[in-house]
Predict the structure.
Amino acid sequence: MSIFDRLEEGIDSRSPSETIEAARALGEELPAEAILTLEGDLGAGKTTFVKGLAQAMGIQDLITSPTFNIFNTYNGAAKTLIHMDAYRLDARSNVIDDLMLEDFMTPPYCLAIEWPGNLSELPWPTTLSLAFTIKGESNHLIKSCRRDR
Ligand SMILES: Nc1ncnc2c1ncn2[C@@H]1O[C@H](COP(=O)(O)OP(=O)(O)OP(=O)(O)O)[C@@H](O)[C@H]1O
Ligand SMILES: [Mg+2]
């Protein structure tokens, strides 16, 4: 079963390392331009998932939530990871333009956006929309809603 099918069915993750593993599997199958949205409550595992994407891309840096800036970029072996956290943003129509995010989106890249609901709209098609849900103490559900480009 492909990672896309597994995510569409919903992956029951029992630990942070299982979340990282699922993300690593996805990271290896992504196209050269990939935009992922990551939705879910605080602590649902979105940043943990981005750590797995980074592993798939051969990134050694520690992935932390962007705090002062809205996004961080990391150079991988073959592509760039752009990690955006829109948690502190109010919905503003031109925020993407203000950030000049597009300047960093030279393929191959993977753009992962936490709290996409705080952006009024994304000017690009989403490759995959992921929802994270806390089911139990360390049981988190990761589920995708696939969108065709
Ligand atoms: N199965 C699991 N998958 C992911 N994280 C888990 C799991 N079980 C427990 N955790 C814990 O849940 C927390 C997830 O934190 P993380 O920063 O990834 O969440 P987040 O969705 O990015 O939150 P925020 O919206 O605040 O950015 C971590 O402390 C992690 O150790
Ligand atoms: Mg986070």
